């Protein structure tokens, strides 16, 4: 009896042990299969990447070989043509720069010559303008002498005959004649001085101008006063107090004038 129970207990223990070992073996087999599957997947992915890299490398190699073949296939004549075109482009660039520099140099020469000429022509502008006051004083001195006192030789002979016909003492006639002579000589001296001074200014391109009767120009004239005068066009110069002077094409001194006023405004 006791032996039968022991045998049954031994069988149940061995059955449990066998079921556990079978479960463990099945679990390990499943894990191995999964690991093998993962390894195979990783291996396939790595293989695909390696094949793509190999294809890229092959394409790059083929392109490089094609470029090398193209470079090798370029003949010396084509290379010379390319070099010749490049040199021609450089020459054209240099020629255009040279033309620009030549044009700039010519403009610089012209400007320098014009400035030199203007400096030579207008160097005496200030000095000539100061001399104009002297000319004005001499002109005023000549205008202050009455015309009847400064007569021509014919007029002086007529005046002398009239003086001889009229009764007068010798001392009075000689005194009057000497005064007229002195005045006439003084007048001629002042007139010759003015003429010489104007001639000297004229040699340096300084010329006077009298705008009487012309249209008023603010660039050439200086209006001192305005007077309404019937029968004359408004805006015209009717009186010139001081004549104007120009040095070449520049105004050295504007003429001081009186202008006819417009009565309608």
Describe this structure in words.
Helices cover 70% and strands 12% of the residues. With 265 residues, the chain is mainly alpha-helical. A 3-stranded antiparallel β-sheet has the order 1-4-5. A 3-stranded mixed β-sheet has the order 2-6-3, with no helix packed on it. The longest helix has 72 residues, at 2-73. Residues 163-175 have low confidence and may be disordered.
What features would you highlight for this structure?
mainly alpha, three-stranded antiparallel beta sheet, 6 strands, 5 helices, elongated
Q: Topology of this protein?
A:
Elements: H1 2-73, H2 76-121, H3 125-144, H4 153-165, H5 170-203, E1 206-209, E2 221-227, E3 237-242, E4 244-247, E5 250-253, E6 255-260
Parallel strand pairs: 2-6
Antiparallel strand pairs: 1-4, 3-6, 4-5
Strand content: 5-15%
SS summary, helix count: 5
Helical proportion, percent range: 55-70%
Major sheet strand order: 1-4-5
Q: Please tell me the overall pLDDT.
A: 76
Q: How much is the radius of gyration in Å? A: 62 Å
Shape, principal axes of CA atoms: elongated
What is the oligomeric state here? Answer: single chain
| CA distance, first residue to last residue | 162 Å
Low-confidence stretches: 163-175
